[in-house]
Amino acid sequence: MYLIGLTGGIASGKSTVARRLVEHGAIHLDADQLARRVVEPGSTCLQSIVDEFGQGVLRPDGTLDRQRLGELVFRDEGARARLNAIVHPAVRELSGRLIAKAEEEDPQAVVVYDVPLLVEAQVDHPFDLVVVTSAPKRAQVKRLVEERGLDPIQAEARVDAQVSDEERRAVADVVIDTGGTIAHTMSQADALWVDIERARKAARERPSG
Ligand SMILES: CC(C)(COP(=O)(O)OP(=O)(O)OC[C@H]1O[C@@H](n2cnc3c(N)ncnc32)[C@H](O)[C@@H]1O)[C@@H](O)C(=O)NCCC(=O)NCCS
Ligand SMILES: Nc1ncnc2c1ncn2[C@@H]1O[C@H](COP(=O)(O)OP(=O)(O)OP(=O)(O)O)[C@@H](O)[C@H]1O
């Protein structure tokens, strides 16, 4: 297996890059989706969230009111840390299991683990490559406002709830500039795939022992 950790700020283009790598043959795992799975009704995580933040973060049907909880945690660092302490260990455990399963099913698989908080949550799966998508903050805020309907204050708060691109670049093997056109992002993703294929081929041909 070849394991890629893909990270970057909110609305920086991680999913866009991941989708392109999937078109080339990679398997995609998404930490945001896993974070939704671990808080489904009946989960211990959801119960811990209710214990911590009260019944008010549940919708009438018993599912998590994500908007309500988001309003709480993106303006309060302490609340965010308490939520992270509940959700992140469960996501870590589930992602570890799914990565192991992907390897079992296909030892040659290229797995892209899209994990927005790779730096913040100190995700330490044994990545072969860490890829960071990077766009200027004003582009991130514009996308959140225009495409996801956040107001500019909320959008800024979400960007500011994350580490800076400098901190992400410090752990990156590859940085993809996602501040330009989509076509520019795609061509960098395509070039990355060529490099990955080359590295894997060289590893296969290397005499072992
Ligand atoms: C606060 C919640 C309920 C808001 O839900 P919502 O549906 O509005 O957003 P969604 O989950 O789709 O996240 C969108 C983006 O917000 C950013 N984000 C999410 N959680 C966090 C966090 N704790 N700290 C910083 N940024 C975050 C990420 O860039 C993420 O891609 C939700 O994000 C959550 O449960 N967060 C804690 C778990 C977590 O850290 N998830 C991120 C990856 S593991
Ligand atoms: N050069 C670019 N590269 C990537 N995305 C771009 C670019 N220009 C505009 N966009 C738009 O920005 C948005 C980025 O969203 P995407 O879901 O890929 O980001 P993300 O980092 O996965 O977001 P999130 O952290 O919320 O999961 C998309 O709507 C995309 O069309």
From TrEMBL:
The protein's Enzyme Commission number: 2.7.1.24
PANTHER family: BIFUNCTIONAL COENZYME A SYNTHASE-RELATED, DEPHOSPHO-COA KINASE-RELATED
Molecular-function GO term, any one: ATP binding
Protein family membership: Belongs to the asparaginase 1 family. Belongs to the CoaE family.
GO cellular component, one term: cytoplasm
UniProt-listed PROSITE patterns: ASN_GLN_ASE_1 (PS00144), DPCK (PS51219)
Active site as annotated: 181
Pfam family, one: CoaE
Gene this protein is translated from: coaE
Compartmental location: Cytoplasm
Function summary: Catalyzes the phosphorylation of the 3'-hydroxyl group of dephosphocoenzyme A to form coenzyme A.
Keyword Transferase: yes
Residues noted as binding ATP in the record, renumbered to the chain: 11-16
Superkingdom of source: Bacteria
Organism: Agromyces luteolus
Protein name, per record: Dephospho-CoA kinase
Alphabetic keyword roster: ATP-binding, Coenzyme A biosynthesis, Cytoplasm, Kinase, Nucleotide-binding, Transferase
Catalytic activity entry: 3'-dephospho-CoA + ATP = ADP + CoA + H(+)
Any one GO biological process: amino acid metabolic process
Pathways involved: Cofactor biosynthesis; coenzyme A biosynthesis; CoA from (R)-pantothenate: step 5/5
Principal EC category: transferase
